[in-house]
Design brief:
The chain is of the alpha/beta class. It has 15 helices and 13 strands. Strand 6, helix 9 and strand 7 form a beta-alpha-beta unit. The longest helix is centred in the middle third of the chain and has 16 residues.
């Protein structure tokens, strides 16, 4: 019988800690001991036990104690790869090295001092988007840039039709898209250099449809003309880019058309094609598209006041401007997942230590 998507029914394992409610005293949520995790996550009931469809949208595992056997470790890895929810590895200060080697199979790794509770709360607020994000990032290494962008857009479009985005959209004030008084992008060529300036500081250079289209037109020229040796991308005003223009969210009639447009006019794809010639100069707020697009550049230079954030999960979405492709190639899928799930702000120094930024200017 075909799956009609109406829900999940049938037998499943009894609930247990490791994906339960946070501690009653407001402390850290429970995590599964490694031995129990090897058993439960290798079980055929694992996807029922830990799934947004079944009301248990996360799992955490303590990587402490004796290392599992090679067979048990392989089974755990297979189980984690198939989970329809995010997984968190908690690494103790002193743990068995062999157990720590399992950390790369998880979606997020928490080192000593890192808090699990904020991530769990974020997942519980948008479990469908959190699961989709984890599943999308897991397959990223096997995809080309183009394949990754198509996969990202497909997931983003699906979530646009979901209840979490609908709830967020309903909570927003009435949309009032504005026609900018001047072009939101200024392109200027001098010799072999093409300078692209985000030029709508009144809206903190929000990534609007018009800005996207103009940026794509300029990048098409850059891709076609190899005499352009350097492309400089920067922004006017106090922020490089505050992310997607919220006044335009939800305006398209259907997600399928949105996907067609997103994969037709893709600044991310064009930036990737000429990345070796691109220098992105970022400052202030670099939110959503404001960091997802610069991360494609061959070189990212940040002012010391720059900060980065991926806020899409709180909207019931995943990054949609190429971030699930560009960021993992710079900082790995686990840090990308942490950024997207937590919605936390990251400063220029942290970004530089991760490799998201190549140079910090005063």
């Amino acid at each position: 019988m075909a799956d009609d998507g109406r829900g999940v029914a049938g037998a499943r394992e009894p609930a247990a800690k490791g994906g339960g409610e946070p501690a009653p005293d407001g402390g850290e949520p429970d995590a599964l001991p490694l031995v129990e995790a090897c058993e439960r996550l290798a079980s055929p009931w694992a996807s029922d036990s830990f799934s947004a469809a079944c009301g248990q949208p996360w799992v955490a595992v303590e990587l402490a104690g004796a290392a599992p056997s090679p067979d048990a470790a392989d089974a755990l890895r297979r189980g984690l790869a198939e989970l329809p929810c995010p997984s968190f590895a908690i690494v103790p200060e002193r743990g068995a090295p062999a157990a720590r080697e399992l950390a790369d199979a998880f979606d997020v790794v928490l080192e000593p001092g890192d808090a699990l509770a904020p991530l769990v709360e974020a997942v519980k607020r948008a479990p469908l988007a959190a699961a989709a994000l984890a599943q999308l990032l897991r397959g990223g290494e096997a995809r080309s840039v183009e394949q990754g962008l198509v996969a990202e857009s497909s997931v983003y479009s699906m979530l646009q039709a979901g209840p979490e985005f609908a709830a967020w959209l309903a909570s927003q004030p009435t949309l009032r898209p504005e026609i900018p008084e001047s072009p939101p992008l200024v392109a200027a060529r001098e010799g072999a250099q093409l300078e692209l300036v985000l030029a709508n500081p009144a809206k903190r250079n929000a990534y609007s449809a018009e800005l996207r289209d103009r940026l794509c037109e300029a990048l098409q020229l850059a891709v076609a003309d190899e005499a352009i040796e350097e492309i400089v991308l920067r922004g006017e005003g106090p922020a490089f880019c505050a992310g997607g223009d919220l006044d335009e969210f939800g305006l398209l009639v259907d997600p399928a058309t949105a996907h067609a447009i997103r994969t037709t006019r893709s600044a991310a794809r064009l930036l990737a094609r000429c990345a070796g010639r691109v220098r992105a100069e970022i400052h202030g707020a670099c939110v959503g598209a404001g960091i997802e697009l610069p991360a494609f550049a061959g070189r990212v230079v940040a002012r010391s006041d720059a900060w980065m954030q991926l806020p899409e999960l709180a909207m019931g979405l995943v990054p949609g401007a190429g971030g699930t492709v560009s960021l993992p190639r710079r900082i790995g899928r686990q840090r990308t997942a942490w950024l997207a799930l937590s919605g936390a702000r990251v400063g220029a120094e942290t970004a530089a230590s991760w490799g998201l930024v190549d140079e910090i200017l005063p």
